[in-house]
Each structure stands twice: as C-alpha cells, then as structure tokens.
C-alpha cells in the first residue's frame, strides 16, 4: 500500500525503472490510466509505458516538452496541450475505447477536448508495464534521454473508461473502483536508483 508515498527517481538522466505487475486476463477494449508526477524536466520523458511483444508503444503516456502530453495507443498518438507547468504536481488521466476510438484526457481534474485514435484496435494483454523509462522493445530498449526524473504517485490502470465523476475522484484521491493496477495495492519491482519516500505535501 503506497498511500501518501511517492516513487523518487533521483538521477537525471536515469537508468532506473519500476516494473508493475498487472492481472490482465484478456486484451483491453477500453482502459483508463491515471498518475501524478512532479518534476522540473524540460526534455522529453515517459510517464507510463505498456508494451507487448507486437507493439512497444501499446499504451504510452509521454511528455515530449513542457505544456504537451502524448497518449499512444497501438503505436499511434494524439497530443494534448496543457498550461505551462508552475512547478507543481500534475495529475493526468487518459482513457480510450475501441468502439469509438475516442481518447479522453483529464489534466488536474479537468477534461480536455476529446480526440480520435485507433478505432477498432485492441490492446494486447501480455504486457511489460514500466514507470520511469520508455520501452523501444518488450521490457527494454531504453533511451536515457526519455527517462523520468522526479516524483511519481497515484498510478492506476483500469480496464474500463472511467466516468467523469470517477476521473475527478482520481484527481482528488477519493475512493475509486477496483483497478487492474492500484497505488494502494501495487505489486512492483524496482530496477536501479529509485526510492520510495513519504509525500512531502498534498
């Protein structure tokens, strides 16, 4: 249970990463991924990397530069432009559904205009899920200049698209539905220089 704790990736650039173990029975027709990050990086970095043997960017939450997030599904991406960071925690949730190909992006509890991506696609279940690095091969192929440096918390993955009130609940750290990956019951393995610390502030 990582309640009120954070993952601190200490180095920049970093070779550290965290492997997350998810219980996925079948491929994903829908998903929502949420997390909170705190960093002063201005170079590109990966926040959440979900790779299958067929596709290294099966699900990828990536920040190419300040004020911009990219959501990849099956190797294709859409871009969401957000206000320039003010040196604070940023909470993001991204959801996607195969039926419409609609990608939803929530930034600090507010929805951004929806975009279309990979309609009819299915996300594979046999996945390597990593925090801190961007996979260019299944479970590896890292470029240190896409590595994350800073603090990560409140990482969740659901196999459904969350409703707007649940998206806001994730931002406010309220009660959430059972998840495939949940911060309060996370199975993870640390590789390299990453430490778990108490959160310094809300």
Looking at the structure, what is the overall shape?
A: globular
Determine the fraction of residues in helical runs and give it as a percent range: under 10%
| Helical run tally | 1
- Which CATH-level-2 architecture? Sandwich
Query: What is the percentage of strand-forming residues?
Result: 35-45%
Average pLDDT value?
A: 96
Characterize the largest beta sheet: strand count, sense, and whether it forms a barrel. 8 strands, antiparallel
The CATH class is identified as: Mainly Beta
Residue stretches low in confidence (pLDDT < 50, at least 5 long) are none
**CATH domain topology:** Jelly Rolls
Structural class: mainly beta
Query: How far is it from the N-terminal to the C-terminal residue, by CA?
Result: 17 Å
Total number of distinct structural domains = 1
Cα-based radius of gyration, to the nearest Å:
15 Å
Order of helices and strands: EEEEEEEEEEEEEHEE
What is the number of E strands? 15
């Amino acid at each position: 249970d990582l309640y009120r704790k954070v993952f601190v990736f200490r180095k920049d650039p970093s070779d550290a990463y965290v492997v997350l173990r998810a219980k996925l029975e079948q491929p994903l027709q829908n998903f929502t991924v949420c997390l909170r990050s705190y960093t002063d990086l201005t170079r590109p970095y990966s926040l959440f990397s979900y790779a299958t043997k067929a596709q290294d960017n099966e699900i990828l939450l990536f920040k190419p530069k300040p004020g911009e997030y990219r959501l990849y599904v099956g190797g294709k991406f859409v871009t969401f432009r957000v206000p320039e960071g003010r040196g604070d925690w940023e909470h993001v949730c991204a959801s996607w559904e195969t039926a419409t190909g609609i990608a939803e992006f929530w930034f600090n509890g507010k929805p951004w205009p929806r975009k279309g991506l990979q309609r009819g696609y299915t996300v594979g279940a046999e996945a390597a899920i990593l925090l801190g690095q961007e996979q260019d091969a299944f479970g590896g192929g890292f470029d240190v200049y896409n590595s994350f440096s800073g603090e990560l918390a409140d990482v969740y993955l659901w196999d459904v698209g969350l409703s707007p009130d649940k998206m806001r609940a994730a931002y406010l750290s309220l009660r959430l539905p059972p998840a495939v990956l949940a911060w309060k019951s996370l199975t993870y393995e640390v590789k390299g220089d990453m430490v778990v610390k108490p959160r310094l502030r809300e």
